[in-house]
Amino acid sequence: MDPRIVKKKKERHFEPQCGDGIDECIATSIKEAKALGEPITLHFNDNVLKITGESKAAAVKKEKDEQSRKRWEAYKKTPAYAKAQAREKAERERDQKKIDELMASLDGALAKGIGAAVGWMKDYAAVADNITLKTDHGTVLKKVLAAGYKEDAHVGEHEKLKENYAAAGEYIMGQAIACMKEGFAPHPITGKFAAEFARIRAVKTFPVMHTIKLNGKAPPPDTINLVPQIKFKPPACG
């Protein structure tokens, strides 16, 4: 007998494990019910399905879908649903405002240097991976490329990335470019990379650590504090 089937009082119950699929659970329940000669109750994502050896998989799955639909419709009539909707609306408005502000500040961030550029990309990645928001990855990509950043910059140069902070920043920007070239937002892991790249805090005295010239000229001094200097740890696959 399948070990996921347990007996409680006089009834047998199928309790799926993490990762089990509905089709396999239904098929196994029908098979075991037939072999045991008694019904089995399958519990799947809050659905309770009575199964016998004569049950048809398609009918059981239809019943599961119907239970889920009824539970969802009932939830939509509760105060909890209304509260959740209001919270999500507020979060969308907050994040959209953040995106709008970031788009307005992109040119300035790119002009300030690598630290500001990475800081901007970190903030953008944190909110841009949401299909309900109005984003413009194309414009971001165009401006970042025009600033001199390159896709997959410094990939595989692990030792250099540990010591050269400009290279580490260009690596982060290059990974963001790779995502946007595929039509996606920069991966949220950009924030983790940026945290390892530096502790970001605005100052005016930090020396330039930017290897890219903007419009043929060296960029102005960076406004991002990279101290204490934290060694950047690129992913093993990158």
Present the secondary structure layout.
Blueprint: E1 5-8, E2 11-14, H1 22-36, E3 40-44, E4 47-51, H2 57-75, H3 79-112, H4 114-128, H5 137-146, H6 158-163, H7 165-181, H8 190-197
Parallel strand pairs: 2-3
Antiparallel strand pairs: 1-2, 3-4
Helix pairs in contact: 3-4, 4-7, 4-8, 5-7, 7-8
Q: Can you give a write-up of this model?
A:
This protein is of the alpha+beta class and 238 residues long. It has helices at 22-36, 57-75, 79-112, 114-128, 137-146, 158-163, 165-181, 190-197, and strands at 5-8, 11-14, 40-44, 47-51. Helix 3 runs antiparallel to helix 4 (114-128). It starts with a strand and ends in a 41-residue tail after the last helix.
Tell me the overall shape: elongated
Q: What is the overall pLDDT average?
A: 82
| Beta-strand fraction estimate | 5-15%
Give the N-terminus to C-terminus distance in angstroms: 46 Å
The ordered H/E elements are EEHEEHHHHHHH
- List unreliable stretches of 5+ residues: 199-232
- By oligomeric state, this entry counts as single chain
Radius of gyration over alpha carbons? 27 Å
Say how many strands there are. 4
Helix count, DSSP H or I runs of 4 or more residues: 8
* Class of secondary structure makeup: alpha+beta
Largest sheet: 4 strands, mixed
Q: Strands of the largest sheet, in order across it?
A: 1-2-3-4
Q: Helix proportion of residues, in percent?
A: 40-55%
